[in-house]
Amino acid sequence: MTKKQNIGTICIQGGWQPKKGESRVLPIFQSTTFKYETSEQMARLFDLEDSGYFYSRLQNPTVDAVGAKIAALEGGVGAVMTSSGQAANFYAILNICQSGDHFVSATTIYGGTYNLFAVTLKKMGIEVTFVDADAPAEEIEKAFRPNTKALFGETISNPGANVLDIEKFANIAHKNGVPLIIDNTFATPINCRPIEWGADIVTHSTTKYMDGHAVAVGGAIIDSGNFDWEAQHDKFTCLTEPDESYHGLIYTKNFGNAAYITKLVSQVMRDLGAMMSPQNAFLLNLGLETLHLRMPRHCSNAQKVAEFLKAHPKVKWVNYSGLKDDKYYELAQKYTPEGGCGVMAFAVEGNKEDAIRFMDSLKFIAIVTHVADARSCVLHPASHTHRQLSDAQLQEAGINPDLIRLSVGIEDVEDIIADIEQALQVL
């Protein structure tokens, strides 16, 4: 029996297994189409009777190799790569929800995802109920309806840095016969693998730590293969009953525990087409090769920065689960004992204008609409990423007007702290 590889080896060796004479480095298959010798060969691909490549909107060898690596890192049976993290969360829901359906989500999620769920999906006839992730299970269960199809949350929330009790959410979801979908962008599979705690579907904005260098936008959806769709036959007829667009094929019957991920590629990606480009997949793979090296540095730097901020007289509060008095410290010790991520939330003394003055005074820590890459950066969510939310929605999402999101990079931590310290002096 072959020993299961450790996660650092998968980061480097996973996905692409070159044969004799093939490129050692994952090549870029920059082609829209792929040749076959007979019409019958192509027909079998279109009927999902054979696996292979015929058009890069559905599958591409470069993209699939990266997907296989990420699936291995998360412990899933397969992955679909998308053009962005936003597309990943959209497709993860849309693959099992249609007009008239409902799902439940934690309130404390990324502002773009909140808007996707609350506004755009609502226009499509899919409703969401937001719940306090920290509430007791029986309180969260009150949000479920007969037409509820999923429960959604983020391992570490963006931007508040809240830690989700994944096991609690998994128990709630499974008790109510639906899958748990977890966005694991901030923790990455280096620090947390939600499938091991009961998650059924995992999503990522690969734009963040996985890429790690702010060069390639992308997303991923990983299927654990663990959810029993047939046990909820009548709830998930999109998987358990014939798909007329494939001559009556039944995903659970034809593809077993890969039913969800197969439908995602062959139906949702086929029709909506937000696929990852081969070039972006190649760049993402380079980032993945050092993910296991970068994440410990992000976390150790962030821990030191959080401790500095916590002790500073011009800082009101700090949310970072590595701090022993943090609300989420115990959950972090359970789910991310090696460290969570490099992102934290804090507030300086004063008001919103003081927060902006602090950020404008930073020298190399840049104000950017990004997070979680090698370079330290800062953002004011109420003014930037979450500005589309109402005041009431901001409060529900845990976004105070003075909240500053700091993404600690992998520069020398003494320089990071020095930049923060000089900016605090202007207050």
Task: Give the SSE layout.
Blueprint: H1 7-13, H2 39-46, H3 61-74, E1 78-82, H4 85-94, E2 102-106, H5 111-123, E3 127-131, H6 137-141, E4 148-154, H7 166-175, E5 180-183, H8 188-191, E6 201-205, E7 219-223, H9 237-240, H10 251-255, H11 259-272, H12 278-288, H13 291-311, E8 315-319, H14 329-335, E9 343-348, H15 352-360, E10 366-367, E11 377-379, H16 391-396, E12 404-407, H17 413-424
Parallel strand pairs: 2-3, 2-4, 4-5, 5-6, 10-11
Antiparallel strand pairs: 1-7, 6-7, 8-9, 9-12, 11-12
Descriptive overview:
It is built from 17 helices and twelve strands. The chain has 427 residues and is an alpha/beta fold. Strand 5, helix 8 and strand 6 (201-205) form a beta-alpha-beta unit. The radius of gyration is 22 Å and the shape is globular. It starts with 6 loop residues before the first helix and ends with a helix. The mean pLDDT is 94.
Global outline: globular
Count of DSSP-assigned helices: 17
Give helix and strand order, one letter per element, not per position.
HHHEHEHEHEHEHEEHHHHHEHEHEEHEH
Strand content: 5-15%
Alpha-carbon Rg, integer: 22 Å
Helix content: 25-40%
**Distance linking N and C termini:** 62 Å
Secondary-structure-derived class: alpha/beta
- Mean pLDDT equals 94
- The largest sheet has its strands arranged as 1-7-6-5-4-2-3
User: How does the major sheet shape up?
Assistant: 7 strands, mixed
- Model regions low in confidence, pLDDT < 50 over at least 5 residues: none
The total of beta strands comes to 12
